[in-house]
Amino acid sequence: MNTVRFVSTGPVPPLVRQILKPFGPVEIAPSTDEESLIQLMTDTAGLIVRGVTKVSARVIESGKQLRVIGRSGVGCDNVDVRAATARGIPVVYTPGAGARAVAEGAMAMLLVLAKRLPELDSRTKHGEWQTRFDTRIDDLQGATVGIVGLGRIGREVAKLARAFDMLILAYDPHIPDHPTEHAGVKMVDLDSLFADSDFICLHAPLTDETKGMVNRRRLSLVKPTAVIVNLARGELFESLDVVYEALLADKLSGVGMDTFPKEPPDTSHPIFSHSRVLCTPHVLGLSVGATKRIFTMMSEGMAMVLEGGTPENVINPKAFRARPVGAKR
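-> structure tokens emitted (329 positions)
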């Protein structure tokens, strides 16, 4: 077997190197801008895409030896899948591998924001014991949670919400409104979900239709006690400005963000100083168990492609039919 090289746009756990070792070494890109990636594509057979690194058509077309792309996650909006398909390059991804971890992260954010834990922690440590009499603490039990996107992650959130005796609304235009499809979940339109939910969880993919879906008009519909958490894509927010304005106007009680319109975010924005905003660095889907599942699934899929196989976890299966005549199948 000819040795090839893999390039990763971010650090990878040791198991990736172990699985791909029979094929070649894994090198970490020192820079991930487009021009740097183009330079790195020389003699690279496998590209591992971490985080929100953009892999454009130019990057893909520059990889003359590129045979497979691995995406350590489920969202592939930052990879030009169409260009990869045209070149006959499969894009291996990891659907479902981190779903439970993200769902647990969403519920953790809801609990922390509902119980005002950061604020209460800070005030207690500063001797403000009387805060126990003037701080609003909300319950999940009996509250309504609205889930935007009822895919693998959204369904896991619904499962956890049931354990808290929450009423569950969901919006997903790709799922039919059928009473037997999702027991205990009421499918509604997006505006109704925003108007009727006490807690809103965003788990939709980033598409032309979902980009900016959380805008001024939609935020004007929410209850003043509502909490919204975004563990999907930052661009589902029209901007951080509109979310911050809703907080200042008491149209939102709390905001949790694991993803941001631009990553890493510009933390000089005033939203990052707000006491009812909770932030994490796009990490809640990377628990110990989820990380192992994600990188094992990705690496084994990439290895299968290089061996001429056809893994199921490929987002563009048409790429196998688009391979040039004579290419290993």
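The CA atoms of residues 60 and 84 lie 6 Å apart.
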